[in-house]
Amino acid sequence: MDAFTAGLLQRIEATQSDLSKARETGDDHLADVEQAELEDLQRLAAEHGVPVEHGVSVEHGVSVTAA
Predict the structure, then answer these.
(1) pLDDT for 9-50, tens place per residue?
(2) What residues pair up with 59 in beta bridges, in sequence order?
(3) Residue 46: which of 57, 34, 38 has the closest Cα?
(4) H/E element holding 64?
């Protein structure tokens, strides 16, 4: 795995964690920011052919987990 792929997957994982924490604490604004970041990272992964596994998310029914 190259550095770009590893870094991207690490950012996705961290963003998922931050999103979950924001939702657990009821910080709707931060949750919106983290959700947008996660969607941007998912798009970036798709554009660069980085495989990600889809699972169940807290809000939208889809999240990304490193494959």
Answers:
(1) 999 999 999 999 999 999 999 999 999 999 999 999 999 999
(2) none
(3) 38
(4) strand 63-66
